[in-house]
């Protein structure tokens, strides 16, 4: 019999796939996508995925056999394997790193050769109660007569018959033990009595960990004339193109258009992936989708436990109209789910930076990956935003994507009026109260008087960005990273936002010993503290990374605001995206300059997008909203464009600048990060790699240079940036970069060097 071989992907950062032989007793179970247990090294066992099976001998001197095939049903499908391979090639990482990000870790238990590998995923089971056999009405009446002397048992049996729908068209089914005892108001002793008499029995059944929506669904809302026109425009574009950009101003009703597109896909038996940038957004939108699509709607994000992730994974793979998920609402990791019949991908807020994964590998962009995923399925993609990314808008104007525009708010609600508050003038005239201008305080005052709500946006968490000694200027810096420690008042600690390291608040200066340390700058925690002093009667809440660590914390903060139990909500950029509050009329942007003056070619685009998104939260019903932007530079060109909500003006300026200086979308960028704990060795390796790349790519190479944050977790960092023209073959450039990196990794002393590549690092 001819020997068969398998190429296997292991969830490790190793180059390429590993080859194993398939023993004859496992051959019938082996197929692409199934889990296989293999040995790597002397003792270690890993679970991997079979990617390919073939018969030609691979020409290796030693080939180990597959130890076991743990599950005959494929965990991943052919299109997922195709996507993994594309991601590993495009984002310059290993398929193992993609697999580690893609599949819930507990599906891949590890072990060693001396002990059995134990499966970590365990279906949740609960105790159910059922009749020991099929009793007819007459037999049950006799049993109930006999139980008259045991009223507790009689009541329990009667309760069971009611809950199990005995006597209906369907047979009496199992009832949860806990539900039965609660319904009957009975003790476990009565149940034990009925079990001993052979009437009832206890069984264990698998139950899901996921809350199911079995509510009655409601028909779709009727679209307005402008929404109907845009939906027609999307259909026409889809006839010619696979990708459409929906540019709709805030509160124009983009979600309703998505809902109508979802309905069409469900009717044709297809699955839908609805991508959102933040977990916070899923809370509101899931309710809207479940209202129409009920139990077909599933959610996927990082706050789920590993056991729950596996159940979601299985229900997407199941694709069963009665129990499977047909519509998945999720954040960037949702692109990895095992879709089998994907018909539509929706990428909401497509401009958002949260779609980009920075660390660890794969450093992928969910928007671009989702477009590829849709392509592998022959599905359509619609991307929506009030302020699209410059790249996407460029692709739409150049005809690569279809373009549909929605230029009026739903219900003809006016866009919010924008007021610029000059902080420099207010400080000079001593009119500032803490960090608030008179314009902002007056607007908050008016809103609270009318029982309306307020959002205050500050894109920095914590109480104070740093603590400084007024005597000598000493600042507490993280001992592992080249950044200031941030003061968190509620936790009474100094925290590094790069490595998570925390330490006690110093009582005196670390340089001169002076006790009078002062806080400098302000974060969301300080805004919360001070707004409570200025408006003591207001009910204030805060939404940032520190207050949303719990699984349901987003939901509870948003629900409290929706139910008007919160008057003022303070938050970072997670409050800027897609949220819809009926009674919100005032939005305050506390420090616009902080956004605009960031050293990044995208700073102005991102600032415009963030301010447009935040301002779009205000006045989404009948009342016109008001946005107060606090800035020390009211003449800034981006802020002037914001006043008119002039997205096209911003795009035009940005596109001209980027074309002049060769930045995306007019080129492709690849960033190489080098890290080492020894600064001199890092300089040496980075210099070598830089010289090597300059010989290959000339002046397309920028650096090596220290980035703004030049040390994180004791590792010094240097960066090399490559700009490659759009018409040049990117795959050839990547091969040359890989070869250069491999040469550097062979140099003496490179064991402590870490090199990572980030394709499209923006």
Instruction: Tell me the quaternary state.
Output: single chain
CATH class of the largest domain: Alpha Beta
Overall geometry comes to: globular
Number of strands: 32
The parts where pLDDT drops under 50 for at least 5 residues are none
Rg calculated over all Cα atoms? 30 Å
| Amino-to-carboxy terminus distance | 53 Å
Biggest beta sheet attributes: 7 strands, parallel
Question: Count of DSSP helices?
Answer: 22
CATH topology of the largest domain: Rossmann fold
- Estimate what percentage of residues fall within beta strands: 15-25%
Topology:
Blueprint: E1 4-9, E2 18-22, E3 35-40, E4 44-54, E5 68-71, H1 78-90, H2 95-102, E6 111-112, E7 125-131, H3 137-146, H4 151-163, E8 175-176, H5 177-184, H6 188-196, E9 200-206, H7 225-240, E10 243-248, H8 254-267, E11 271-275, H9 279-293, E12 297-300, H10 306-318, E13 327-330, E14 342-348, H11 366-377, E15 380-385, H12 390-397, E16 402-406, E17 417-422, H13 423-428, H14 438-449, E18 453-457, E19 466-468, E20 486-488, E21 493-495, E22 502-504, E23 518-520, H15 524-534, E24 540-543, H16 553-562, E25 568-571, E26 584-589, H17 592-596, H18 603-615, E27 626-631, H19 637-643, H20 647-661, E28 667-676, H21 679-697, E29 701-705, E30 711-712, E31 715-725, H22 730-745, E32 754-759
Parallel strand pairs: 10-15, 10-16, 11-13, 11-14, 12-13, 14-15, 17-27, 18-25, 18-26, 24-25, 26-27
Antiparallel strand pairs: 1-2, 1-4, 3-4, 3-5, 4-6, 7-8, 7-9, 19-23, 20-21, 21-22, 28-31, 28-32, 29-31, 30-31
Which features would summarize this protein structure in a list?
globular; alpha/beta; 5 domains; Rossmann fold; single chain; 762 residues; GIY-YIG endonuclease
């Amino acid at each position: 019999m001819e020997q068969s071989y398998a190429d296997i992907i292991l969830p490790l950062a190793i180059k390429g796939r590993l080859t194993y032989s398939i023993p004859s007793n496992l051959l019938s179970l082996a197929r692409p996508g199934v889990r296989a247990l293999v040995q790597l090294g002397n003792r270690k066992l890993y679970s991997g995925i079979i990617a390919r099976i073939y018969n030609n001998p691979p020409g290796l001197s030693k080939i180990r056999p597959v130890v076991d095939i743990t599950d005959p049903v494929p965990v991943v499908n052919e299109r997922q394997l195709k996507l993994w391979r594309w991601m590993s090639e495009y984002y310059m990482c290993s398929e193992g790193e993609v697999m580690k990000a893609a599949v819930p870790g507990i599906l891949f238990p590890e072990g060693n050769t001396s002990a059995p590998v134990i499966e970590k995923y365990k279906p949740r089971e609960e105790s159910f109660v059922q009749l020991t056999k099929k009793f007819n009405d007459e037999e049950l009446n006799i049993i109930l007569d006999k139980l008259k002397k045991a009223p507790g048992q009689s009541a329990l049996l009667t309760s069971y018959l009611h809950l199990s729908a005995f006597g209906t068209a369907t047979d009496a089914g199992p009832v949860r033990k806990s539900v039965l005892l609660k319904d009957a108001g009975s003790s476990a002793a009565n149940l034990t009595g009925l079990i001993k008499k052979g009437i009832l029995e206890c069984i264990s059944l698998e139950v899901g960990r996921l809350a199911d929506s079995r509510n009655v669904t409601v028909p779709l809302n009727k679209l307005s004339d402008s929404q109907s026109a845009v939906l027609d425009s999307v259909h026409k574009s889809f006839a010619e193109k696979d990708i459409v950009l929906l540019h709709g101003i805030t509160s124009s009703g983009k979600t309703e258009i998505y809902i109508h597109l979802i309905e069409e896909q469900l009717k044709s038996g297809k699955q839908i992936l609805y991508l959102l940038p933040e977990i916070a957004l899923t809370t509101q939108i899931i309710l809207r989708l479940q209202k129409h699509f009920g139990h077909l709607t599933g959610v996927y994000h990082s706050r789920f436990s590993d056991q729950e992730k596996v159940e979601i994974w299985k229900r997407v793979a199941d694709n069963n109209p009665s129990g499977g998920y047909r519509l998945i609402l999720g954040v960037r990791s949702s692109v990895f789910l095992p879709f089998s019949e994907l018909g539509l991908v929706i990428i909401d807020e497509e401009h958002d930076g949260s779609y980009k994964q920075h660390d660890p590998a794969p450093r992928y962009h969910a928007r671009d990956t989702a477009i590829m995923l849709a392509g592998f399925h022959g599905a359509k993609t619609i991307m929506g935003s009030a302020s699209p990314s410059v790249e996407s808008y460029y692709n739409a104007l150049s005809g690569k994507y279809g373009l549909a525009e929605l230029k009026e708010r739903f219900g003809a609600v006016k866009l919010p009026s924008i007021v610029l508050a000059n902080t420099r003038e207010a400080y000079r005239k001593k009119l500032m109260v803490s960090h608030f201008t008179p314009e902002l305080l007056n607007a908050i005052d008016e809103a609270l008087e009318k029982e309306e709500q307020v959002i205050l946006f500050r894109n920095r968490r914590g109480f104070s960005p740093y603590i400084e000694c007024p005597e000598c200027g000493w600042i507490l810096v993280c001992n592992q990273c080249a950044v200031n420690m941030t003061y968190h008042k509620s936790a009474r600690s100094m925290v590094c936002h790069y490595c998570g390291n925390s330490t006690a608040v110093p009582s005196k200066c670390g340089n001169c010993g002076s006790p009078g340390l002062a806080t400098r700058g302000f974060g969301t925690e300080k805004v919360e503290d001070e707004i409570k002093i200025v408006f003591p009667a207001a009910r204030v809440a805060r939404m940032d990374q520190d207050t949303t660590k719990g699984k349901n914390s987003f939901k509870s903060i948003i629900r409290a605001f929706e139910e008007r139990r919160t008057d003022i909500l303070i938050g970072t950029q997670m409050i800027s995206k897609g949220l819809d509050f009926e009674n919100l009329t005032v939005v305050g942007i506390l420090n616009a300059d902080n956004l605009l003056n960031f050293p990044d070619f995208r700073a102005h685009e991102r600032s415009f997008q963030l301010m447009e998104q935040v301002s779009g939260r205000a006045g989404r019903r009948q009342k016109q909203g008001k946005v107060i932007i606090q800035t020390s530079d009211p003449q800034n060109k981006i802020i002037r464009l914001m006043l008119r909500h002039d997205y096209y003006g911003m795009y035009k300026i940005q596109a001209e600048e980027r074309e002049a200086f060769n930045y995306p979308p007019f080129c492709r960028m690849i960033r190489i990060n080098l890290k080492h704990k020894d600064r001199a060795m890092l300089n040496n390796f980075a210099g070598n790699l830089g010289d090597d790349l300059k010989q290959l790519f000339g002046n397309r190479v920028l650096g090596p240079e220290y980035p703004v944050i030049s040390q994180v977790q004791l590792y010094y960092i240097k960066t090399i940036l490559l700009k490659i023209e759009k018409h040049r073959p990117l795959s050839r450039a990547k091969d040359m970069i890989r070869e250069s990196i491999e040469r550097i990794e062979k140099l003496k002393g490179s064991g402590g060097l870490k090199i990572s590549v980030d394709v499209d690092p923006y």
